[in-house]
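Archive entry. Fields below.
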Amino acid sequence: MTPTDFSPKEIRTQAQRRRTFAVISHPDAGKSTLTEALALHARVIGQAGATHGKAGRRSTVSDWMKMEQDRGISISSAALQFEYRDTVINLIDTPGHADFSEDTYRVLSSVDLTIMLVDAAKGLETQTMKLFDVCKHREIPIITVINKWDRPGIDALELMDEIVQRTGMVPTPLTWPVGQSGDFRGVLNREDGTYTKFTRTDGGATIAGEETMDAEAAEELEGDAWTNAVDESDLLELEDQNYDEESFLAGHTTPVMFASAVLNFGVHKILDTLVDIAPPAHARIDVDGNPREVDAPFSGFVFKVQAGMDSNHRDRLAYVRVCSGVFERGMVVTHAATGKPFATKYAQQVFGRDREVIDTAFPGDVVGLVNASALRVGDSLYLDEPVSFPPIPSFSPEHFMVIRAKDSSKYKQFRRGIEQLDHEGVIQVLRSDLRGDQAPVLGAVGPMQFEVAEDRMQNEFNAPCTLERLAYTIARRTVQEDIPTLARERSVEVLHRSDGTLLALFSDRWRLQGVEREHPNLTLEPLVVT
Ligand code: G4P
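PREDICTED_STRUCTURE:
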């Protein structure tokens, strides 16, 4: 079939079947475990363990770089697709380590929903809050999952209070735990008052047993644990903390579920909730503020570019979120940034380490375009009717290092490597005439980005480097006219970023405030996350 063989109605139906989301959480809240459990339930994989990214576990699906395996953290983003109840679920994986939050922020531009995963014993942690802010800014609806209920933790009502206090969103639990944290017996389904009892299976490696019964049977079986759950649920009812579609989609409320990812408790409910209430792929707003309807000709945008993921596939992969129309492998699309044609001969669906050739994709899906050296993060692609989607913002770097080639005869490789890392958004590359091309400055949101850059320069581009720390911690956007004034200030430097932004770097807040006081007319704007 070619894209023209699909009627607009068929495309709309396919878009309606898609749920594209990411899980945001603080490291260790259980994101990899939940990913694995969701895939297990959708029966993509036979036994839990196959997608888990921790060192020492079996081979991983969503984590792939050697460094990731060594450290047991997830650095690169993978897209996982599976079907559940005739719905196509696209789970976009995000890096687990806080140092890669820049990457995570970008990934969030590709999803229609996020699941905020909270460790029941820890509540809302710093990284969860940062990511939450980005979702809120982007108006992405959020479903909250309280994980690790099998372990002693914070009281359920207290957790609800914390959500209200710290996020401003009203939690509207869909399920309520029966048994305190540490004694997880099952959940009260608040919509119909039934009880789903969970049964452990060996090591949580297979789907947990679930039995649903009415309230009377539940009370007989669980006694006080059941009546407590009912009382607390009634309290929520009094506070009007019930699910409401409109306020959920508007980001004012967050449906909540309780789970134990490691025991596979509550995972079915999460999948059912995705199918039942998560927004399907819908029209995307272009740079001019007009919606690109899902049944318009093909369009998509690059939210991640990655290379060197696997020594068997030494190439460059651009992840594209399909926004409208049908994507068909082999199709020649237009690259909006250059107006040039782009052939998609090598489209693949990426399932962690394994790649499958993909032939057709619909709005909400993610395709990996191989050998995509012309594509940058944020670029739009389209067929027939031109469209550009709003650029994905770059974030304010807080760590800076000068990078130089160790061996001057490798300068060509050095340049190529730097350019590549810059394109991929692995690190921000900052330049000035004064420093020249041989010693650019690298800017990072988290210092671990430097390690990835250094490692890749050496192993992938064959250009060993030295890195030297600079004593700046704050960047502000400035303008050309202000450069001469800033250049006269001590401990201040102005550099160009490759997206054209001029960044003034300061050693610390006090230095910045000093300069602002002395020259109140200078443009020194914070780089905000939008
Ligand atoms: P992350 O991707 O968010 O960083 O978290 P990950 O899934 O790797 O989980 C972090 C730790 O929390 C793991 O333990 C994992 O087994 C555990 N965990 C995840 N979900 C649950 C849960 O529902 N209940 C309990 N009790 N633990 C959970 P670990 O000791 O770091 O690794 P491992 O020894 O289990 O491999």
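CURATOR_NOTE: Residues 399-526 form a domain with the Alpha-Beta Plaits fold (CATH 3.30.70.3280).
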